[in-house]
């Protein structure tokens, strides 16, 4: 009787070696697998280093540090902070300073009417196509065409995934419908990406993710009232105009003028703020100081004369009433003159 065991052979090692075409196909698949990180590799990413976002110049007085300390405290408590206040009060600079202080990457987003859900979370950005050729059987070329849709994450998705600080400027200028995705972010710690298919349709929010939002007061034109369900999850910090000392420091950091000139500009700005119904913010003081620095309107004591102050502040504030009628501009001119 013949022993069958002599017929059994054990194959060690790789019996069949992959063809060059198969290797190239696998390489192409790996390339596509890394496509989602293509933006980062090319430097096109919304992530910024914290030291790069600190406003220059940025003035720190006791009032500024106190307000920033409140913001930082709420962020440490894992609460999204909504800075609300009049235009020109320094909300954006304050938000960026608080974000940088966390020493985490920062993602910037500016709100407007064009911001929708896709602009926040991402969308498909065309397709990618490649072919595999299988010539393992001699004389037979099997061709397989593979098409893959490419998804690009937008600021919110990047921020929640990377644990960045999201600074959403002019939050109230965006359509409230675009912010529905924020509910699950702040309530459940999950971001849903509508339009994305597969297991990665959702992103678990990174434990270091934080958000700072800024908005003008609701009476300003072009703003939307956001849904209560979302606002209930925010901490609202009111940012008003700073005290006179801080405003002098801010204006002096932006414009090279004498202390007396800066004091006169800030005093005039604060008087106009009380006298006029339009918004006269710290930004208006900086703009007026910039204009006064290039006009020859000093008297013998080194201070600006009243006529120059009147003309410059009228020019700075006229755009706020332009289009409402010539009488409004005349009224503004006379009110500025009376105040000065």
Automatic annotation (TrEMBL):
<dbReference type="GO" id="GO:0031412">
    <property type="term" value="P:gas vesicle organization"/>
</dbReference>
<protein>
    <submittedName>
        <fullName>Gas vesicle protein GvpN</fullName>
    </submittedName>
</protein>
<keyword id="KW-0963">Cytoplasm</keyword>
<feature type="region of interest" description="Disordered">
    <location>
        <begin position="1"/>
        <end position="53"/>
    </location>
</feature>
<keyword id="KW-0304">Gas vesicle</keyword>
<dbReference type="GO" id="GO:0005737">
    <property type="term" value="C:cytoplasm"/>
</dbReference>
<dbReference type="Pfam" id="PF07728">
    <property type="entry name" value="AAA_5"/>
</dbReference>
<keyword id="KW-0378">Hydrolase</keyword>
<dbReference type="InterPro" id="IPR011704">
    <property type="entry name" value="ATPase_dyneun-rel_AAA"/>
</dbReference>
<dbReference type="InterPro" id="IPR050764">
    <property type="entry name" value="CbbQ/NirQ/NorQ/GpvN"/>
</dbReference>
<dbReference type="GO" id="GO:0016887">
    <property type="term" value="F:ATP hydrolysis activity"/>
</dbReference>
<keyword id="KW-0547">Nucleotide-binding</keyword>
<dbReference type="InterPro" id="IPR027417">
    <property type="entry name" value="P-loop_NTPase"/>
</dbReference>
<feature type="compositionally biased region" description="Basic residues">
    <location>
        <begin position="8"/>
        <end position="17"/>
    </location>
</feature>
<dbReference type="GO" id="GO:0031411">
    <property type="term" value="C:gas vesicle"/>
</dbReference>
<keyword id="KW-0067">ATP-binding</keyword>
<comment type="similarity">
    <text>Belongs to the CbbQ/NirQ/NorQ/GpvN family.</text>
</comment>
<dbReference type="InterPro" id="IPR013462">
    <property type="entry name" value="Gas-vesicle_GvpN"/>
</dbReference>
<dbReference type="GO" id="GO:0005524">
    <property type="term" value="F:ATP binding"/>
</dbReference>
<feature type="domain" description="AAA+ ATPase">
    <location>
        <begin position="77"/>
        <end position="245"/>
    </location>
</feature>
<dbReference type="InterPro" id="IPR003593">
    <property type="entry name" value="AAA+_ATPase"/>
</dbReference>
